[in-house]
């Protein structure tokens, strides 16, 4: 019996069990039931919830990003589908405000490797305050009728090109994980055609550009098995009654099995801890588990032609780094790329995309000026930490935004940038704004003019590290022109008073010892 039919049969057979488990859980959680307040009752309810959750099919999650903060002000956010095709929608996260109208346009290309685009919720959430964000929302292949035709790697590249042309010039593209290869190929194709809508910059994060470098277990599997094994063992037809009935796919449940088998002990421990949190009435711990697995266990099917072509071209034949990748009968030549700046980001502990695989893009794009190429490796993070979590928010995203701002159309720097992380500004005299002496016109000279900046020098410091500075106040300071610890550390008494009056700080700058804190923090980042 084909895998897909067996999976559907098993899911249907477990439906009554799930219903009984859910009903039992509700019975033992009812506050009117005396056993609900005992350890026995909580244990039964916890066991039923674990059983129901590990046997259910998880639907596509929602992004749920209803608001963001722009220039220190909370504004509503709405999701609009602005470009659509049978296999993908492009979602625009529209910020309902006149603020930030000059923010850069960023197209975030989400992975089409099993999980939905909502896996990048944290990525989008951190970009929204600083950019006009668009995201590729790939559609589950089992929901696409066979009459809508095929979808392979060539189509993926064409989709990216079409979306970039839709968004127009001065767009920045960010490829997360698997899309790094088609994003790089799409930009190379656009450059070879002298397309005026070629993106101003591309950021490739944890992507398998050259899997010959530091191969991982994922890479070894593809090399060991060969493409014929994948054709025989993982490609099945979508069964009735799904809309994509009879379409050849690599099903999501097989992908999920592969994901979980790589760290099976960790997932078993997580579910054991979830059970114990429920018994102990630890709502926070249980809710974190639900949030993570609601996302992680929601998977989609991929078209067989796209999956097989990707495995063969990227993981077996290494077509892009070998210079043999073809797109619609034409060779993809990354050396054609000249106008698009390149940033690559890797995680030190990435066990899915090995260290150096993404950085390999720099050697391929040998005609991009050195001033427009940067590589950054984030210490102590794995694959998912590159685009989600605290390190993404505090370390990686600020660097990405700094790179994008530095390479906007008409604003590209002529200063050479090494392939190392951007260096934060220090309190050296040469780093401060240079102000010409004021003409003697009788007008009062603003004492803050010597310290305020129109934009950060390098990467902005995390001003929230100063006791008493929260996200809102940090945004207010940034809007006023303060981005670095050294600016605060070097404030004079006159400037402190002026800043206090200007931002209505009510003396908290001196009261909370900002100057002393900033001096220590400035030394730490120097």
Task: Report on the architecture of this protein.
The chain is of the alpha/beta class. The protein has 19 helices and 14 strands. The strands form three sheets. The chain has a nine-stranded mixed sheet, with helices on both faces. A three-stranded antiparallel sheet has the order 8-9-10. Mean pLDDT is 87; it is low at 413-443. The chain is globular. The N and C termini lie far apart (64 Å).
Largest sheet: 9 strands, mixed
Number of helices: 19
Beta-strand segment tally? 14
Percent strand: 5-15%
Strand sequence of the main sheet, in spatial order?
Answer: 1-2-3-5-4-6-7-13-14
Q: Segments where pLDDT lies below 50 for 5+ residues?
A: 413-443
Helical amount: 40-55%
Give the overall form. Answer: globular
End-to-end Cα distance, whole Å, is 64 Å
Mean pLDDT: 87
Which descriptors apply to this entry?
526 residues; alpha/beta; 9-stranded mixed beta sheet; 3-stranded antiparallel beta sheet; 19 helices; 14% strand; PHB_depoly_PhaZ; PHA/PHB_synthase; PHB_depo_C
Quick gist of this model?
With 526 residues, this protein is of the alpha/beta class. It has helices spanning 3-29, 39-55, 121-127, 153-167, 180-192, 217-225, 227-233, 252-262, 264-279, 283-296, 304-316, 319-322, 361-364, 390-406, 471-480, 485-489, 493-503, 508-511, 514-525, and strands at residues 67-70, 73-85, 88-95, 105-109, 132-138, 171-176, 201-205, 236-237, 248-250, 302-303, 326-327, 330-331, 341-347, 373-378. A nine-stranded mixed beta sheet has the order 1-2-3-5-4-6-7-13-14, sandwiched between helices. Strands 8-9-10 form a three-stranded antiparallel beta sheet.
